[in-house]
Amino acid sequence: METRRETGFGRGYSIWLVPRQDPLENILQGKMVEISSRCSTPAFRRHATLVGTLLDSGREVLVKTDTLAKKISPFSITLGEIDYSEEYFKALFIDVQRTPELMNANAVAREVFQEKRLDDEYKPHMSLLYANMPAHEKEVLIREVFREVGGRKAFSGAQFVVDRLDLYSTDGKVDNWYFVDSCYLEKAQNRLQA
């Protein structure tokens, strides 16, 4: 029996870390569009998920996201190598380094969203493709799509600053997902008001 995750159905809400004013945005988003087009799969906004499958009401999740944002300082995300897995939502992805700041942000999120306390180990990544496809096809995609920008290591070491949490409804098919609101990290808010 296929699960919702194997067939491309999400549940609830997710908190995304979305790059802003990132020098790689045009290159990487362009590659994601190319992959989506080649594979006839849904396109989605580039992000790293901090915590997902939040099943409270939208209002409750937004209130908790705001609480979470007040507990986290802005931090940087560092990208690693391009890789793939058998998971639909992680078919092709860029590994994200497990920095103390990022892992702390996830730990605080698990405290605020108590139902996430016992989730599996956090494995940060930035998905490039949502799909079910054989490993050899993923290898071909990496080789052909990323060849001119450095292959698997194309974005290794690249960084972007996280200064807000973006809340998305990720219920149902990817095409139906939508942005709900942003909650700025507390110290980022103070800096912007100064």
Structural write-up:
This protein is α+β, with helices and mostly antiparallel strands and 194 residues long. It has one domain (9-193): Cyclic Phosphodiesterase, Chain: A (Alpha-Beta Complex). It is built from five helices and ten strands, in the order ββαβαββαβαββββα. The strands form three sheets. It has a four-stranded antiparallel sheet. A four-stranded antiparallel sheet has the order 6-5-4-7. The chain has a two-stranded antiparallel sheet with strand order 1-9. Strand 4 (75-84) and strand 5 form a beta hairpin. The relative contact order is 0.24. The model is unreliable at 1-5 and 190-194 (pLDDT under 50).
Question: What keyword list fits this structure?
Answer:
194 residues, alpha+beta, Cyclic Phosphodiesterase, Chain: A, four-stranded antiparallel β-sheet, 5 helices, disordered N terminus, disordered C terminus
Q: Could you provide a short overview of the structure?
A:
The protein contains five helices and ten strands. It is α+β, with helices and mostly antiparallel strands and 194 residues long.
